[in-house]
Structures are given as structure tokens and as C-alpha cells.
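Entries read chain and fold; for instance:
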Amino acid sequence: MCLSGEGPLKGKEVLLSVIAGSISYGLNTKDSDVDIRGVFAHPVKDILVGEYEKVIQENNNDTIYTEIGFFLEQLRKNTPSALEVLFTTDPEHVKIRDKRFDPLIEKVLSKKCFYTFGAYAESQILKAKNVNKKSANPFPKERKTLKDFSWVLCYQHSIPYRDWLECCGIKETNLSLCKMNHAENVYVLYNHPCKAGPILDMNINITSVPKNANTAAYVIINIPAYQKYCKEYKEYWDWVAKRNEKRYATNVEKTSDKTFYDTKNMMHLFRLMSLCREILKDGTLTVKCNPILRQFLLKIRNGDFEYDYLMKLANEKSLELKELFNKSKLPEKPDKEFFKNYILNFYE
């Protein structure tokens, strides 16, 4: 074994090293990072004594090398990222490529790609919808409380709890709250000061009251609606905290509020669908986009299409993939025995 690695790869044989990501797709911009992906092999003695790594990462994940055994496992599962590395054959993007990878090209693709590429694309559709929804329906930073989900019964009507307090000139500090028996989400308000804090805030504050306390009103608290609000509020502000502000601002600039979408995410959604179509229809995988596909994808990234149009098109392509899956002549899954023999022969 020729130990060709340097730095973290020192003492290991580098078998494959390619420029991956947007550059290999032909979709890069002047701001695109240079992503390097590769495969390495440990000396046999390291494997036998259990001292080996499956993945080596550098430069904040811009450079990732995968151990040959783990890489083969990913290929057998038809993992999109592994397949893209294997099928990157453009000379300008290949730095190192061991000829022992050539036989894998003919053996690795299967109908399983429908699930790995197609299912991942489906998840991106859902993600795109969620991002669109969050952008179109922002949550105010000030959080609502249970007061905003409470209604006071007034004969055959109900009025918002806050309005009732204002209308009656009652201070909430002069009220106590008790659960009403045999009535879900219905509570009794008493004219008795609660010394344990607000009766309706982020939680329901139930306290005991004297037997002679006067009933002020009956209130319905829409607990399911409040729980739903809390969940969506957290999801929205978690999304705000984690989003790439520069990328988000670019997306806002490119798209209108009503049709906002993550242009880069949407572009890769259609790229994945295109790859899945090629695999199922032709039994091949071309990493670099052809000129027509490239032009279409760049238009998506530039925000040239309406969100609703892209969602309609994505759903149509999803149906087409299901039809191609049923007609595909690819094997159901990669040959397990082939991969077993491959790794054994590799280390002979």
C-alpha cells in the first residue's frame, strides 16, 4: 500500500479526491466554497487492531475523506453524496482517482436510488413549504400568553378574556381560578385575590378559594390552540436563530414575500430530481449539469420563478419518478456479494 496522505491523512492511502459540490455541478458562483471529497484506506494493521477512522474532516467540513469500507457501505445504500463522489469523472474536478473504482460504476446503481434521491427530494419539498410558511407568517417576538386563548362565557355568547377584564373594570390580581368539574378546559373565576402570581400567563395558576368566595365568571381556555401556538412560536424563532442571514436577505431580495423560498435549496431539489430521473430512466448518473438543466437551475437560484409554480412542477416530477421507478430495469438493490468480494480483493 502506498501511503500518500498528508496532514490528517498521513499514513493512509488516498484513493480518490475530487472537487465536489456546486463546482462539480457547474452551479458555482464567485462566493462558492471549494468542497473536496475523497476516499482513503487505512493500513491493514490499523483495521485489525481497531484503530481506524471512518471519516476525516478538515476546514469546517469543506474537506471530507471517507474510509474505503464505509464509502462502500454508503454506495451499497445508494447514498446520494457517495454516488456523486464516485461518478465525478470530469478531469478538471478529479485530483486523484484509483482505477480500482472503475468496476463500481457498473454495479452500484439500483432502484434504491428512487428512495434515496427521490425521498430526499420529497423532504426538500416539505422543507421548502415550511420555509415559505415561516417567511409569510412571521411570529411577533412578544409571546402570547394563555390570556389570549381564554374566553369568558356570557349567556349564549363568549367574549375574549382581556376584553372582559377591561369591560368590567376588573384587575386580574383580584381574581382566583379553579377548575370546573366534569367540564374540559372550563374554569371558574372567583372574586378573591390570588397571592400566587398571575392566574393566566404561560401556565394556568389554580388556587384554592374560601367557600364563601363569589363567582365572577366562567372561562374557557383553549389549551390545544395555545399548545399549537407555543410549538409554532418555538419553531419559528429557532429557525430565525439558525438561518443564514446573508442567504436569507438574498432570498428576500430575489423573491416577493408571498412567493418567498430558499432559492439555493429549491435549486438543489430540482437537481436531485433530475439525477433520480436519469438514474431510473437511463441507468447512468451525470454529476455536471447539462447546459439546459444548468440554465433552468440557475433561474431558480435567481428567483425567476414563482413559488407556487415550482411546487406544482415538483409534484409533477415526483409523479413521473414513481412511474419511472415502476418501469426501471435496474436491480432492486446493489449486489451485496459483489461488494463483499470487492473489499476482500481490495486488501489482498
Summary: The chain has three domains: 1-107+331-348, 111-140+244-329, 146-227. Strands lie at 13-20, 35-41, 55-58, 63-67, 94-97, 150-154, 157-160, 176-179, 186-190, 215-221.
